[in-house]
Specification:
By secondary structure, the protein is α+β, with helices and mostly antiparallel strands. Helix content is 72%, strand content 12%. It folds into two domains: 90 residues; 86 residues, hypothetical protein PF0899 fold, CATH 3.30.2320. α2 crosses α3. The protein is elongated and about 85 Å long.
Length: 198
């Protein structure tokens, strides 16, 4: 299974789990609303029209509070699930077989290169992105044209577990696995947060 398929599978599983949680919370809200309606009905019979108005306001307030509380709980649970799934994804990406790792890093680097003159900085324990790999990327850039093919592997190492950083002057493009997964996680969390306010 390629790295992209692994990520897609993880994201799909996260979405499924999130939908289950939303359904459970919606059922809890519906159940709570039935109980509120019964209480309010009894209250209205005893106190008449003025009490009815107060009960309607109380009902709206209680329901709004209950919905918000359940939505926050669902969001917290989804974030917890996402955190675990992304941690698993990170471990799987770091343990990719050499050929899959090479294919993924090649795609990422070709996409991240701006001029073709960048310096390639890798992690302290990275051995698969080496001078030969950078040379192959330069060959590909030369064949494609449009950018220079002068990437060079830096002697400096960064504290990243997998992936690379491209440096051009003071500009750095961080394509480490941690950063890429954090971006994907943040995008999903934004979608989840929209559920809270919908």
């Amino acid at each position: 299974m390629e790295a992209e398929q692994v990520i897609e599978k993880i994201l799909s599983d996260a979405k499924e789990e999130a939908e289950k949680i939303i359904k459970q919370k919606e059922e809890q809200i519906a159940s709570g609303q039935k109980a509120f309606n019964k209480q309010l009905s009894d209250y209205e019979k005893e106190t008449g029209s003025l009490a009815k108005k107060a009960a309607d306001e109380k009902k709206a307030h209680l329901l709004a509070e209950a919905r918000m509380k359940l939505a926050k709980e669902a969001l917290a649970e989804k974030r917890k699930i996402l955190g675990g799934l992304f941690e698993d994804a990170k471990k799987q990406l770091e343990k990719l077989p050499d050929e899959e790792h090479k294919n993924l890093m090649t795609k990422l680097m070709l996409k991240a290169v701006q001029t073709g003159t960048e310096e390639v900085i890798v992690g302290k324990k990275e051995s698969r992105i080496n001078a030969d790999f950078v040379s192959q990327i330069n060959d590909t850039l030369q064949k494609k044209g449009g950018k220079k093919a002068e990437l060079k592997l830096s002697d400096k190492k960064q504290d990243i577990t997998a992936g690379f950083i491209l440096k051009r002057g003071k500009i750095k493009t961080n394509a480490s696995v941690n950063v890429l997964l954090e971006e994907a996680k943040r995008d999903l969390e934004i979608e989840l947060a929209k559920d809270l306010f919908s």
